[in-house]
């Protein structure tokens, strides 16, 4: 067990708490950089996808895990980012400018969507985002002059100073680099007053407001930032799938993104990575499962969403803190070996007293 | 006359939305949980009815009763297995849980009954009632009458029976209700049973009109819009919201370019949230600091 002796107040907001963390994260970075040497094209592509999911996951984690607002429509932001990026590239904009503009655009739209529903909390936001996602999906289908409707839209190859970024290895580094930047931005945000305000809003709106936090502004900032990161992931996702069609961004995609943050562990940046790995590898896992069981069970259509749902339910009931929470429990068990108490992580229950009139 | 015809079909579609919304509101009022799987419970109810009436060949009335009984049981089982452990957990977790449940139910229905659309054989299917130039299908008429009947029964139940009043008490303050001797947990089981039953009723009513497949549960999202338009937590509001959504959808289908009809419910919802977020029948008060 490691005890940290704090000698300065600013130590609280250090990115790395101690040298051990510096060592392990450095090692992780090294492994990330060297991965293309040891992996074949398929695995490298899968890993790029995991990075893209993780970028969107950071966005969603800031909203769901750190601000306590639920969004059932993040696929819409993924879609807006992807389509905007492809549209700008088709206009002949350079790659970085296009990616950046689509991120800003998505963030702006996210902020605008949040405004009407900020006066009410919880489910209202969730449902409004759901409605928004449906409207975006329909718009993508019917606004043919920009999106190509059902026929879809070809994504131009990303080029940066005439270097082709779409090849496997450059694309891998591109996704990895963006992910690291987004992670740093997210962590930096969380140790700033804005990020702390978000956490305060999550823990108790009433007490946050009594401390002088502007609820509406904090929530819409969180929403805009979250949408922006998701839009950025959308831009990269567009290159990953190569061809955009409305059916790539459905309710199932939104749920998949939510599944990622819940399974990974709400309220931790580690959780994003675990969740992204989980989501990225799940389809392959299901494919293996389909082959392993008898065809009468394995070939059921719609098995995949069902498995998603089942995993979500099991995690929510048995391990609401997600993979990261489980890891922490296991670590604590060994750290305090004979003294571990089960009740350390006992969930606090709050019983209902409604705010309704009738 | 066209207008009247449109209103009739809007009202009958709206009643279905209203019934599903009613299920949402019942559960929300009692347990303050939001059940996103309500539409999928409706789908399951319709399939159970198909099993009894089409496959086993039971008469329609008996089939309906059996369906309601089975679905009430399903509601109780779901509550015991999934939602009782979640009692006292944050709303968000429960919301996610019901979404997951919806996916499971859809996969289950697809596996058991197949993904091809099926129609429920109803004795009144295909007949029409002519009033002047107005043509009303019996199916639509049955939907409207069934809704009115169910609403009356629910009103009487909540107003006059001990159980109904106990449900209201539990919905207002769990701890206080528990202290005065109301078996809160059992009440919640019953609320889930009631809500699943209402959903199944909506499923049976709508099944002869529209074909059923595992994805019809998605009308639940529109019904959700209806519940919010009506003011979440108000039973008459749910029905009224449903009617409003049904009518808006019909008119959008006629007067606006294709594609807008599918969106109209959601646009209505967003507009409503912007102008009057507490819904038509406000029953919620924002906490003031």
Write a compact overview of the structure shown.
The complex is a heterodimer of chains A (358) and B (289). Chain A has 358 residues and is mainly α. Chain A has helices spanning 19-38, 41-66, 74-90, 95-117, 123-142, 144-147, 168-190, 193-203, 205-210, 215-241, 251-264, 269-292, 295-298, 303-318, 322-335; strands at 153-154, 159-160, 163-164, 243-244.
Keywords:
heterodimer; A: 358 residues; mainly alpha; ABC transporter involved in vitamin B12 uptake, BtuC; two-stranded antiparallel ribbon; 15 helices; 70% helix; globular; B: 289 residues
Write the layout of secondary structure elements.
The complex is a heterodimer of chains A (358) and B (289).
Chain A: H1 19-38, H2 41-66, H3 74-90, H4 95-117, H5 123-142, H6 144-147, E1 153-154, E2 159-160, E3 163-164, H7 168-190, H8 193-203, H9 205-210, H10 215-241, E4 243-244, H11 251-264, H12 269-292, H13 295-298, H14 303-318, H15 322-335
Antiparallel strand pairs in A: 1-4, 2-3
Helix pairs in contact in A: 2-7, 2-10, 2-11, 2-12, 3-4, 3-5, 3-10, 4-10, 8-10, 11-12, 11-14, 11-15, 12-15
Chain B: H1 2-31, H2 38-55, H3 60-83, H4 91-113, E1 128-131, E2 134-137, H5 138-160, H6 162-172, H7 174-179, H8 184-206, H9 219-229, H10 235-255, H11 260-275
Antiparallel strand pairs in B: 1-2
Helix pairs in contact in B: 1-5, 1-6, 1-8, 1-9, 1-10, 2-3, 2-4, 2-8, 2-9, 3-8, 5-6, 5-8, 6-8, 9-10, 9-11, 10-11
């Amino acid at each position: 067990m490691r005890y940290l002796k704090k000698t300065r107040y600013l130590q609280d907001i250090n990115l790395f708490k101690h040298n051990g963390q510096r060592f392990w994260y450095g090692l992780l970075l090294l492994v990330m950089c060297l991965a293309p040497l040891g992996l074949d094209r398929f695995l490298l592509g899968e890993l790029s996808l995991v990075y893209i999911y993780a970028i969107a996951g950071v966005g969603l984690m800031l909203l769901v895990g750190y601000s306590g607002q639920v969004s059932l429509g993040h696929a819409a932001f993924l879609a807006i980012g992807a389509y905007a990026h492809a549209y700008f590239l088709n206009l002949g904009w350079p790659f970085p400018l296009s990616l950046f503009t689509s991120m800003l655009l998505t963030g702006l739209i996210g902020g605008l969507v949040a405004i009407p529903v900020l006066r009410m909390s919880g489910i209202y936001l969730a449902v409004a985002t759901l409605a928004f996602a449906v409207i975006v999906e329909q718009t993508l289908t019917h606004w043919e002059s920009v999106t190509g409707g059902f026929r879809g839209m070809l994504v131009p190859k990303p080029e940066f100073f005439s270097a082709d970024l779409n090849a496997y290895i450059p694309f891998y580094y591109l996704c990895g680099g963006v992910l690291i930047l987004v992670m740093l931005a997210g962590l930096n945000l969380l140790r700033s007053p804005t990020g702390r305000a978000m956490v305060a809003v999550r823990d108790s709106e009433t007490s946050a407001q009594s401390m002088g936090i502007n609820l509406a502004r904090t929530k819409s900032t969180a929403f805009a930032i979250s949408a922006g990161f998701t839009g950025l992931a959308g831009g990269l996702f567009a290159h990953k799938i190569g061809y955009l069609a409305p059916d790539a961004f459905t309710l199932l995609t939104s749920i998949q993104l939510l599944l990622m943050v819940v399974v990974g562990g709400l309220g931790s940046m580690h959780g994003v990575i675990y969740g992204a790995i989980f989501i990225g590898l799940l389809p392959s896992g299901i494919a293996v499962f389909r082959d392993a069981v008898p065809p009468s069970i394995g070939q059921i259509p719609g098995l995949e969403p069902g498995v998603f749902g089942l995993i979500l339910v099991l995690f929510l009931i048995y391990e609401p803190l997600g993979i990261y929470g489980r890891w922490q429990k296991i670590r604590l068990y060994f750290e305090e070996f004979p003294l571990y108490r089960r009740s350390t992580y006992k969930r606090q229950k709050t019983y209902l007293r409604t705010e309704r009139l009738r | 006359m066209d207008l009247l015809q449109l209103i009739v079909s809007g009202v009958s579609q709206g009643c279905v939305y209203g019934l599903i919304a009613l299920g949402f509101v019942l559960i929300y009022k009692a347990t303050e949980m939001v059940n996103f799987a309500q539409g999928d419970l409706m789908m399951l109810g319709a399939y159970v009815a198909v099993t009894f009436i089409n496959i086993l060949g039971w008469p329609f009335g008996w089939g309906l009763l059996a369906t309601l009984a089975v679905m009430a049981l399903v509601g109780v089982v779901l509550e015991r297995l999934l939602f009782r452990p979640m009692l006292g957990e944050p709303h968000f977790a429960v919301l996610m849980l019901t979404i997951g449940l919806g996916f499971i139910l859809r996969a289950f229905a697809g596996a058991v009954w197949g993904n091809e659309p099926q129609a429920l054989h109803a004795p009144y299917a295909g007949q029409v009632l002519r009033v002047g130039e107005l043509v009303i299908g019996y199916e639509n008429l049955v939907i409207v009458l069934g809704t009115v009947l169910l609403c009356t029964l629910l009103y009487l139940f909540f107003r006059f029976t001990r159980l109904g009043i106990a449900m209201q008490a539990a919905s207002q303050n769990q701890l206080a209700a528990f202290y005065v001797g109301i078996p809160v947990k059992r009440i919640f089981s019953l609320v889930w049973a009631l809500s699943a039953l209402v959903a199944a009723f909506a499923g049976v009513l709508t099944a002869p009109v529209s074909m059923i497949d595992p994805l019809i549960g998605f009308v639940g999202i529109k019904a959700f819009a209806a519940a919010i338009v009506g003011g979440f937590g108000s039973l008459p509001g749910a029905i009224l919201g449903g009617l409003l959504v049904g009518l808006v959808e019909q008119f959008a289908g006629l007067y606006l370019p294709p594609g807008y009809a599918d969106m109209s419910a959601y646009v209505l919802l967003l507009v409503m949230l912007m102008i009057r977020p507490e819904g038509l029948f406000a029953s919620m008060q924002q906490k003031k600091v």
